[in-house]
Amino acid sequence: xxxxxxxxxxxxxxxxxxxxxxxxxxxxxxxxxxxxxxxxxxxxxxxxxxxxxxxxxxxxxxxxxxxxxxxxxxxxxxxxxxxxxxxxxxxxxxxxxxxxxxxxxxxxxxxxxxxxxxxxxxxxxxxxxxxxxxxxxxxxxxxxxxxxxxxxxxxxxxxxxxxxxxxxxxxxxxxxxxx
Length: 179
Ligand SMILES: [Zn+2]
Ligand SMILES: [Zn+2]
Ligand SMILES: [Zn+2]
Prior knowledge:
By secondary structure, this protein is α+β, with helices and mostly antiparallel strands. The protein has one domain. Helices cover 41% and strands 16% of the residues. The chain is built from 3 helices and 8 strands, in the order αβββαββββαβ. The protein has helices spanning 3-24, 81-108, 138-160; strands spanning 38-40, 57-58, 72-74, 114-116, 120-124, 128-131, 134-137, 171-175. Strands 2-4-5-8 form a 4-stranded mixed β-sheet. The radius of gyration is 23 Å and the shape is globular. The N and C termini lie far apart (86 Å). One zinc ion binds at residues 51-52, 58, 60-61, 139, 143. The site of one zinc ion has 7 residues, from α3.
């Protein structure tokens, strides 16, 4: 072996190792879903669906037969049992939350903008609001306040040292728009 090839060999081995890495981790990359294993539901036009996984129910997507109110559908280019199971669980959560959410509509005699999370039922009827210098629409506000309520809940229960089971039922927060 010459000096030149002796130097080249470790470099070549490094390159080969790097090239082989994706195959070794067992992950099959998918261009269609960019490895998210799920796709956005095509039935909602340009509606921002990025926050849907953070809610158990969102009235903006609930009732959609394509995604079952989750905002996501299975990617047909990937085999991803874990993502499929997660999606199935989310679809069941929408079904479980629906009757409680429908009661709010019944009480008011109209369809409300509403969402549910682990600890809250939220009605948020403002059309838009400026938050951190950004004008947010009703859908974005619904998700933002649901997220903020959960953060408040986490801080509250941690500070007071109370458990979930000490709350008889989910808290209900109703925010009405101006008539
Ligand atoms: Zn995919
Ligand atoms: Zn939503
Ligand atoms: Zn849908």
